[in-house]
Amino acid sequence: MPMSRSSLKVLTHVLYGLYAASVLVAGGTVLVGVVIAYVKRADADGTEYAGHFTWLIRTFWISLLAGAVSIATWFIGLGWLVSLAAAGWFIWRVAKGWLRLLEERALADPTALV
Q1: If phi over 0 gives left and psi between -120 and 50 gives alpha, with beta otherwise, what is residue 32?
Q2: What does the alpha-carbon distance between residue 78 and residue 94 come to, in Å, rounded to a whole number?
Q3: Which DSSP helix (H) or strand (E) runs through 82?
Q4: Domain-located, residue 109
Q5: Which of 39, 51, 74, 89 is the most buried (most CB within 10 A)?
Q6: Does the residue 92 lie in any domain?
């Protein structure tokens, strides 16, 4: 049975909360968040929340890629800079998406990098 719009709204807030909490608890909650986002993504299709699910899933994968680049460049002295930039980008995306959700606005382009 598909979720109601009000349940999707609450779930989307929970997902943003899990992503935000991952900054404080070394990433564990973001894994829970992305799994839930994948599982419930179909329920959001056709609603204003669909873009938020896409935004969150892309945020996870791009952050994972940035983490790999950070590790790969650590030995040449750039890893700390890549890590800092990736963390800032992650926090900015979570904040931007969550603010749009609080304003009850859809994301203009959920596939955009910024």
Answers
A1: alpha
A2: 24
A3: helix 79-102
A4: no
A5: 51
A6: yes
Whether 40 is in a domain gets the answer yes
* Helix residue ranges, H only, the chain: 5-24, 28-44, 50-74, 79-102
Average pLDDT over residues 89-107: 95
The parent domain of residue 39 ranges over: 5-102
Q: List, for residues 39-71, the tens digit of each pLDDT value.
A: 999 999 999 999 999 999 999 999 999 999 999
9 half-sphere exposure, CB direction, 13 A CA radius:
12
Q: Confirm whether 108 is domain-assigned.
A: no
Sequence-ordered list of residues with C-beta below 8 angstroms from that of 87, at least 6 positions apart, any chain: 23
* Sign of the CA dihedral with 98 first, then 52, 15, and 46 last: positive
Locus of tokens 């002295």: 77
Total count of domains within the chain = 1
